[in-house]
Each structure stands twice: as C-alpha cells, then as structure tokens.
Amino acid sequence: MAARLSSSFMHRNSTWLLPWPTFTARVCSRGEGSAASAPKNLSTFQDKPRTVDDLPHVSFLELLYRLVVQGFYSRMHELQIFEKQRYGPIYRDGLKSVAVNTPQLLEEVLRNDEKFPCRGDMSLWNEYRDMRGFGYGPFTVEGEQWYNLRAVLNKRMLHPKDSAQYGGIINDVVTDFTRRIYYLRQCSPTGDLVTDVANELYRLSLEGIASILFETRLGCLEKEIPAGTQDFINAISQMFSNSMAVVVTPRWSRNILPYWRRYIAGWEGIFSFAKELIDKKMEIIQQRIDNNQKVEGEYLTYLLSNTQMSTKDVYGSIAELLLAGVDTTSNTLTWTLHLLSRNPHTQERLYEEVSAFVPADWTPSAEEVTQMPYLKAVFKEALRMYPVVPLNARIISHKDVAIGGYQFPKKTSFTLYHYAISHDEDTFPEPFTFKPERWLRDGRERPNPFGSIPFGFGVRGCVGRRIAELEMYMVLFRLIRLFEIKPDPTVGELKSINRTVLIPNKPLNLHFVERRQENAA
Ligand code: HEM
Predict the structure, then answer these.
(1) CA 501 – ligand 1 centroid, Å
(2) Strands, E assignment, 337-443
(3) Ligand 1 centre from 518 Cα, in Å?
(4) Bridge partner list, 15
(5) Where, in this chain's numbering, is heme bound (predicted)?
(6) Percent of the chain with pLDDT over 90
C-alpha cells in the first residue's frame, strides 16, 4: 500500500503531480495463495468457475524487491510490461488488486462500470477538506453526490461545443506563450534554444486552465511570475512533496514531525489562492445583481450564479479541477514536442496540414483546429506512447462480476494497466514507434478503441478532456506553423519516469527554428 501511495505522491524536478487514488479496497479472497504461478489459459471449459484464488499472483515482498532492488520504483509503468510477460493478462498484483493488461480485459472491466463508478480511497485529500469545512470536488466525492456534482461540472466543459466557447481565451494565452518562446529563444546563445520546455509548458497549462476557471489571467507567461501566483505554485509543490511522508508516518507523530504541518500548509496555500479569486468573482456578481445588470461570464460565473452549488463546494471543485488539469496537459505537450523533434518526417506532414488549413496570418478558431485529422492523430499517438496517467483503477462495489473467465465478488478492486495495454504488440505493431498514421480514418483497420483510452472511460472519465484537447491543438498548431522543432543533441536520450503522471527523467531542451521563409511566402 505504501508503495502505491508513495508513487502517487512523489514530487520531483519542480513537477507537481496529480494523485491517483490509493486502493484500500482489497480483493475479497477465500484464502491466500502460495507462490507466484504461471499464467493460466482463459479457457471456458472447466468444472467449476475460477475465482481470484486461481489467479497467478505477486506477493508483496516480490513487489518490494522489484521496486527497491530492481529499481522499478521510478519505472512502475515498465513494471506493468515486465509483469505482463511473467504473469499474463490477468493476475493479482503485489497490493492484492486484480491487474488487467489487455484491451479486451480492460473493456470487460469498464463495461461493468456502475452508476457511480469508484476509483478508490481519497481519504488523505478528504481530511483537509473536513478540517476546514470545504466541500469535496470531483476526485474526492463518491456515490450519488459525485453523480450530482458531475451533472453540474460537465455542463460548459465536457461537450466539444462547450469547450469551443473558450477558444478565444485559449488563443490569447497561446499568443502570450508564443511571444514567450520568442523571448526565451532570443536569450539563448544560439538564438533559437528553449531550455526546460516542460517547465514552460507547465506555465502555459496553468495559465490556460486558470483563465478558464477563474476568468482571470495569472501572469504565468510574463517574464517574472507574480508573487501570489508563485506562492500558489509553491503550495501545490509543498502539498504533494509532503504527502508521501504523511502517509508512511503514524498519525501520533503528526504533531512531532514536520510533514503533516507542511502538507496542511500546502493545502492552505492552494485553497486560499483559489478562495481569493472565487470571492472576488462573487463580489463582482453581487454588484451586478444589486445594479440589476445581467450576470455574464464563463465557468466560475456559471458555477456561482447558475447552479445550486454552495460556495464551499465551489472552492472544493475549482481546486481539484485546477490540480487535475495542469500536469496532465503540460506533460502531454512535452512528450508530443519531444516526439515531433525526433521524427522530422512526421513533423513535416503535420506542418503541411497546418499550413494548408488556414491562411498564414490566421489564428485558427476552436472549430478549425478540431477538424484537423493529422494533428489529432499526433496527440492520440503521443498519448498512446506516453499515457500521462499510466495506471487507473475501478472498484466494482455492488455486484459480483466475471472478467476474463474468473468470478469476482463485489468490492473487488481492479488495477487498469494502461501503459502495458497501449504497448500491446497485437493491438499496436511496433508499439515503441511513433506512428500517428495508425489513427487516421483513411480506410486502414483502426486499433481496438480500448487499446488507448488516455482520458479514461464512461461517466467517470476525464471532465477536462475537451478543454485539454482544445488547448493542446491550439498550441501545437501555432508552434508548428511558426517553428521547426529540433532536438538539442546535448540532452541525449529522454526516458519516462513515473511520478503518478509520466514525466521526462531530465529537462528537455528544444531548438525552435523559425520558419521565416515559409511564413513570409
Ligand atoms: C492531457 C490532459 C489530460 C489527461 C490525459 C487526463 C486524464 C484523465 C484520466 C485518465 C482521468 C480518470 C478517468 C477515469 O477514471 O475513467 C481523469 C479524471 C479527471 N480529470 Fe483529467 N486529464 C487531462 C486533463 C484534464 C483537465 C484540463 C482537467 C480540468 C479542467 C481535468 C480534470 C479531471 C477531473 C476533475 C477528473 C476526475 C473526474 C471524476 O472523478 O469524476 N483533466 N483525467
């Protein structure tokens, strides 16, 4: 348990990480198995139904050995592939959850999603909210309350038409970002190098999501980040970096050791920043109401004035949306730029699509960028190779289920090994090669849709998907039209490490060579 928790809350290289839930639900078992065994065939011809006891399983000690001695701790996504080779498509993992790692089994699990799907225990996050009387957000709330909250949050966000309304705001942010890229290039010795691109994309993503949620600009793309915004970024970092210590140290030590205090201080910083912006917006809305003026605005105004949500619930939801939206989007963009820099032919094909699509001096609208098949295929493929959320979970709470020919009682926890699935050789030949063409609808056979579902599935799937896609399409469109992106040979090979989201193991530098000739043409 601690291992999964720690992986979920690690902090590194100034990257702040989204916690995926920890699993407290155990597989209900009729008894412990003995040694790890070889995978068994999923034959349906057998005397009695197979149960969890018939599954191959990994012991906790073995998991510890792999993580600590074999060094899979930072490469838990690679451990998914290692275990798949050793134990087969379905087995009990070292934390006693049922691991599935083929598109077919993933589909079976997710088709059993209940009305209120559950990923796992979020009590560490809930504790702070309970202490301060803040409401729960989409990550922390469960059951019917979650369902009602999503009904509210989904509006103005989930449908492509909803996200299109933010096209103007996002384009403004992207314009500032390209300006910043020009500025950073100028400061570099070669005149075109941008160092630590992931950090720049983090600033872009935070600015983008905040401008939608708060309807205000934070200034992340200015030369110097404003102090209040920097405090907020530091607070996120502080909360995540102390989470692991809080989990592994006993409750009685909370007043003695510094971790709990720091962890809570991190949350205080996050909520006080969000609260200040929300309170400001409420004042503006109230003034307009008092003056009999029409209340107009984007997401926050909608939550505050058009829904039955209490202010404390708005605080909870906005904070969680903000935390969920930044690392995911920025790391996806980082991997995409990295892949394009290493694949000039792909980049050229993308440039052809981009430059043929709208006139050179034209800023594309949301409708326009979402109609570009190759651009979309590039992101689908980047997310297949680097699914920023490499692992997810479901607890089937209220019914017994049959998955892969095995019977499982209710409350069984399933771990969804997305990294292994999206590198499944049968579904994706040459799984480690970047081939956006796989995803084109040009008559070729398309891969199993469950082979890569980077935004999750069904009613509990990602609420920010359309906004993230729009932002990523818009920024890539503009960058590719302006620049040819080339690798910095001094960086060497970039590897992915797992810090809940997949991040690069070292800073990525890229050359942004201006396509001046072509732009002028
Ligand atoms: C490339 C960007 C992103 C990726 C790959 C991504 C991926 C995911 C995944 C895999 C899940 C879990 C879904 C499931 O369990 O089926 C999720 C949930 C969630 N995401 Fe995203 N996400 C991204 C961007 C965003 C953004 C921009 C926001 C905020 C605007 C956001 C907000 C959320 C929230 C609130 C949840 C929890 C939903 C719930 O439990 O009901 N995400 N995301």
Answers:
(1) 12
(2) 391-396, 401-403, 406-408, 412-417
(3) 37
(4) 12
(5) 462
(6) 63
Q: Which residue in this structure is represented by tokens 């990257």?
A: 15
In this structure, which residue's CA is closest to atom 24 in ligand 1? 325
Q: Is the pLDDT of residue 85 over 80?
A: yes
For residues 485 and 333, what is the distance between their CA atoms, to the nearest angstrom? 13
Burial call 167-194: b when 16+ CB within 10 Å, e when fewer? bebbbebbebbbebbeebbeeeeeebbb
Collapse the DSSP code of 92 into the 3-class scheme (helix H, G, I; strand E, B; otherwise coil) and give the result: strand
> pLDDT at residue 31 above 70?
no
Instruction: Tell which atom from ligand 1 comes closest to the C-alpha of 453.
Output: 10
pLDDT in tens, 39-54: 444 444 456 789 999 9
Q: Cβ of 223: how many Cβ atoms within 10 Å? A: 9
**29 has pLDDT over 60:** no
**Is residue 321 scored above 50 in pLDDT?**
yes
What residues are designated binding site for heme?
Answer: 462
Quick one: which atom of ligand 1 is closest to the CA of 468?
27
Specify the ligand 1 atom closest to the Cα of 471.
27
List Cβ neighbours of 442 (8 Å cut-off, separation of 6 or more): none
Q: Is 463 in the pocket of ligand 1 (CB under 6 A)?
A: yes
